[in-house]
Amino acid sequence: MRCSCCQKELINSLTLQELFFSSSQRCYHCEQLFSKIDQAQVCPGCGRPNSTELCQDCCLWQQELGFVMRNFSLFSYNEGFRQWIETYKFMGDYRTRGAFVLELTEALQKYQEYLICPLPLSKERFEQRGFNQVRGCLDLTKRSYELLLKRSELAPQSEKSREERLQMKQPFELNVPIEKIRNQKVLLVDDVYTTGRTLFHGAELLYKSGAETVKSLTFAR
After folding, report:
1. Domain Phosphoribosyltransferase, which positions (predicted)?
2. How far apart are CA 60 and CA 26, in angstroms?
3. How many alpha carbons fall within 13 Å on the CB side of residue 52?
4. 87: CB partners within 8 A, 6+ apart
5. Which end of the chain, N or C, is more open, meaning fewer C-beta atoms within 10 Å of its C-beta?
6. What number of CA atoms fall less than 13 Å from residue 11's CA on the CB side?
7. Number of structural domains, the chain?
8. Which CA distances in Å does 15 have to 18, 28, 98, 187?
9. Residue 22 lies in a domain
10. Cβ atoms within 10 A of the Cβ of 183, count?
11. 221 residues of the chain, pLDDT tens digit each
């Protein structure tokens, strides 16, 4: 048995408590990387922890666009999660994509009637990285997904300030006939919810294309 995150041999180092009561299949070290968000204590719009009412950012989005995202995030973006995403996304250690497959699979069960749509990378970014970090994680859940959107080349979001992210132009266009989206419920999936600008761009385009409902799921918030 191996750790679902770092792939190190796990069974020989498991305590009895971890063996019988842990559902994460992560070793002790990797378990410390992730802090689950208490879903009873989040903003109902963006999933921000410790905010049970619609936060200021979501009120502004609602005022500007006429809707909120209804985002669900698995973990807080803490130092441990930052270490994981640095290893996986930026250093390209593809083995770590299974770090939280059980939590992700469970969360997706709530969206049985939805088309699952991972946010795409641009062609240039995909060729540079060699994989889409969101699709890599989704593949292990065995849940089917649809590539509804495609993306033009833009500077990496990680290199932009908050103000630059918020002012970003629409990066997406449809990758399927509009009939595929009309009257459908769509769940956008991304790695990290930061300002929400990218997710809102995707949702705007899908709503304009006739989607009935658009929500989002991110690995961290």
Report:
1. 176-220
2. 39
3. 3
4. 93, 96
5. N
6. 2
7. 1
8. 5, 10, 21, 38
9. no
10. 9
11. 788 888 888 765 555 545 444 456 888 889 999 999 999 999 999 999 988 999 999 999 999 999 999 999 999 999 999 999 999 999 999 999 999 999 999 999 999 999 999 999 999 889 999 999 999 999 999 999 999 999 986 656 556 666 666 677 899 999 999 999 999 999 999 999 999 999 999 999 999 999 999 999 999 99
CA quadruple 49, 220, 38, 32: dihedral, nearest 10? -120
Residues 165 and 197 sit within 8 Å (Cβ to Cβ): yes
CA–CA distance, 147 with 135 (Å, rounded to integer): 10
**58 in a domain, yes or no?**
yes
Amino acid 149 reads: L
Q: Which domain holds residue 168?
A: 33-220
**Phi, psi (deg, nearest 5) at residue 129:** -85, -35
- Using CB atoms within 10 A of its CB, is residue 70 exposed (0-12), middle (13-18) or buried (19+)? middle
Q: Per the structure block, which two tokens stand in for 67?
A: 């809707």
SS3 111: helix
CA nearest neighbour of 133 among 106, 105, 94, 160? 94
> Among candidates 19, 27, 24, which has minimal Cα distance to 2?
27
Q: How far apart are CA 99 and CA 8, in angstroms?
A: 12
Query: In whole angstroms, what is the distance from residue 37 CA to residue 218 CA?
Result: 12
Does a structural domain hold residue 19? no
Q: For residue 23, give every residue at least 6 positions away whose Cβ sits within 8 Å of its Cβ, in sequence order, or none.
A: 102
